[in-house]
Every structure is written in structure tokens, then in C-alpha cells.
Design a protein that fits this description.
By secondary structure, the protein is α/β, with parallel strands linked by helices. It has one domain: Luciferase-like domain (TIM Barrel). It has helices at 17-30, 54-62, 82-95, 110-115, 123-140, 181-188, 202-205, 229-239, 242-245, 253-264, 281-299; strands at residues 5-9, 34-37, 69-72, 75-76, 100-105, 146-149, 154-158, 171-174, 191-194, 213-222, 249-251, 270-275, 306-307, 310-311. The chain has an eight-stranded parallel barrel, surrounded by eight helices. A two-stranded antiparallel ribbon has the order 6-7. Helix 7 (202-205) links the parallel strand 9 and strand 10. Helix 1 packs parallel to helix 11 (281-299).
């Protein structure tokens, strides 16, 4: 069995750059493998509020971390041309020293596209455009000149230099659509990210993913003790409704370990978690110590933690 991976999803709304830097450093120090942002021009379902641009923010986070991987769940494909997106991704991969994961979706929020002046093609057209985007990204990242003719994009003599640090930037395609998303996953993705709202159909969807590895999103309510479970459960349900996030995992650290191991047995290799308190540094540290640490000890894959963005041998053992 491969090592279980843990990511934390911290959507960057009602916050500032300093707070996001603090969260990323805390997640790295706690032993998380990856840190994920949203890619929206506003915050869907919320009143007017601050919402930081995702790619610019990734650059800021890359400069204060050294190990944790960075990405979006998921990037909105209609926002950017494939060539520009490839160039942005290669640059962030260089800034981060090869730590970018490329999360992509076909842009299912038509209201957002219309609000901000993007053409609103049909869902089928947007899905086909995402497939072409991934093909163009792969060609751009080789650094070699190429031509491309698709239904949505045409490039002549295009190339992407400098190349990314990674020989292959992992592509994550997120969603749970049987007819639009899953064929894209099977054809193009290194990872299928099963959104929380589709987890109840996991058994139906997972066989459609081809060779893609599986990650899944979970709402987490981590309680310090059993007496606090009702309060934490209520906050989790209020902030991350089940219709969007699926059934949450709520309980003490020992209870969460058992729940995650049950999900791991279904074939999920990466857990992408959003916490009931938005992932405060204290919660991230407790989860890293009591949940990630416990699971990695069971797997025999425990490893040094990161302190202040650097590996610390004093944390071994």
C-alpha cells in the first residue's frame, strides 16, 4: 500500500495574505503533504467579501514554505487561455522548486462566468475545452515548439520555456459527473479528486477513472474531547453543508483516525480536508500530531516534521 497523503483545503476568502501564509507554514510544520486554494473571482454563495486571486497567492505561499505541495481544487479552466496557464504553472513550479500540483475543472459555475464577462459555453463545450487545455499544457511543458488544432484552441509554433522543474506536473481533475468529468479523468488525469458532494456515488464513479489515483474531499470536525463533539458537529454542518461536502468526519482524533482508515480501505490515497474552524494553526498542529502521526505510524511511514519551513532533525522520533 502506498503512503496515505494529507492535504488541507483553505479557501482564501474573508482573510488576508499574512493569514494564508501562516496557515501554509502551519500545515507544512504539522506534516501535511499539500495545501489547496479555491480558484474563484468571488466567493460562491457568500455576500460581498475579500477573495484573494489564487495564482498570485500561490506564489506568496511558495516563498514561505519548502516542502508542502501547492495547488487549486480546482482551477477554473475558462478563466485563462491554455498557453497563459501553462506559462503561469511553469513559473510557479520554478518558484516553488517543483511543488506545484495542477488542479483543473471545466468551470461548472456558469453564474460566475456570466458575472465577470466570460463567454458561457454549454457544459459539453466547456468539458471538451478542458480536455484540449490539458493536451496543450503537456505540450507547452516539454519546451519544444508545436502546432495544435482543436475545436476550441489553435496554436502555431508555440512553446513553453523555461520548462517546469518537474518532469511531469501532476494533473488533478475534480468533480463527480459521470458523463462530462469522468471521461476527462480517465483520459487526462494523474489524480481524480472526488468532491465531497459526490462521495455517496464513489462506488459508481471510481471504476470510471481509468488509471488515475484517487483523492477525495472531506469536511472534518476535530474535537479535543468527546464533550465537545456536539458543538464541533454543529459548526461543521453549518459551515460545510452535507449537500456540498458530503457526510462529515467528526470526532476526537482517535475517532477520526478510524474513519479515515475506513475510507483509505476504499482506495482513497489522498485526503483533502477542510476543517470546521477553517484550519487554525492549533488545529492543524493537533491533527498532524494525533491523526497524521498515528496513521503514518500504523503504515510505518512516519517521517520528520518541518519546523519554520525547514526539516528539523530534532522532531524525529
Amino acid at each position: 500500500m502506498t503512503t496515505t497523503q494529507f492535504g488541507v483545503f483553505v479557501p482564501q476568502f474573508k482573510t488576508d495574505v499574512a493569514a494564508m501564509r501562516e496557515r501554509a507554514v502551519a500545515a507544512e510544520s504539522a506534516g501535511f503533504d499539500s495545501f489547496w486554494l479555491m480558484d474563484h473571482l468571488y466567493t460562491p454563495g457568500a455576500p460581498l467579501c475579500d477573495s484573494l486571486e489564487s495564482w498570485t497567492l500561490l506564489t506568496a505561499l511558495a516563498t514561505v514554505t519548502s516542502r508542502i505541495r501547492l495547488g487549486h481544487l480546482v482551477g477554473c479552466n475558462p478563466f485563462r487561455s491554455p498557453a497563459v496557464l501553462a506559462k503561469m504553472a511553469a513559473t510557479v513550479d520554478r518558484i516553488s522548486g517543483g511543488r506545484l500540483d495542477m488542479g483543473l475543472g471545466w468551470g461548472s459555475d456558469a453564474a460566475e462566468l456570466e458575472t465577470f464577462g466570460f463567454p458561457v459555453a454549454s457544459p459539453h463545450a466547456r468539458a471538451r475545452a478542458l480536455g484540449e487545455t490539458v493536451e496543450i499544457l503537456r505540450m507547452m511543458w516539454t519546451g519544444k515548439a508545436f502546432d495544435y488544432t482543436g475545436a476550441h484552441f489553435r496554436l502555431r509554433g508555440a512553446y513553453g520555456l523555461p520548462r517546469p522543474v518537474q518532469d511531469r506536473i501532476p494533473v488533478h481533475i475534480g468533480g463527480g459527473g459521470r458523463h462530462l468529468t469522468m471521461p476527462l479523468v480517465a483520459r487526462h488525469a494523474d489524480w481524480w479528486n472526488c468532491v465531497g458532494g459526490a462521495r455517496h456515488r464513489f462506488g459508481e464513479l471510481a471504476p470510471l477513472r481509468g488509471k488515475a489515483r484517487i483523492s477525495a474531499q472531506f469536511a472534518i470536525g476535530l474535537a479535543e474531547n468527546t464533550a465537545l463533539i456536539p458543538e464541533v458537529a454543529a459548526a461543521t454542518a453549518r459551515r460545510m453543508p452535507a449537500q456540498a461536502w458530503g457526510a462529515p468526519l467528526v470526532g476526537t482524533a482517535d475517532m477520526i483516525v478510524d474513519q479515515l482508515l475506513n475510507e483509505r480501505a476504499r482506495g482513497i490515497e489522498m485526503f483533502v480536508l477542510r476543517f470546521h474552524d477553517f484550519g487554525t494553526p492549533a488545529t492543524l498542529a493537533r491533527f498532524g500530531r494525533d491523526v497524521i502521526g498515528a496513521i503514518r505510524q500504523l503504515e510505518g511511514t512516519d517521517r520528520p516534521r518541518v519546523a519554520g519551513g525547514k526539516t528539523s532533525s530534532s522532531d524525529i522520533g
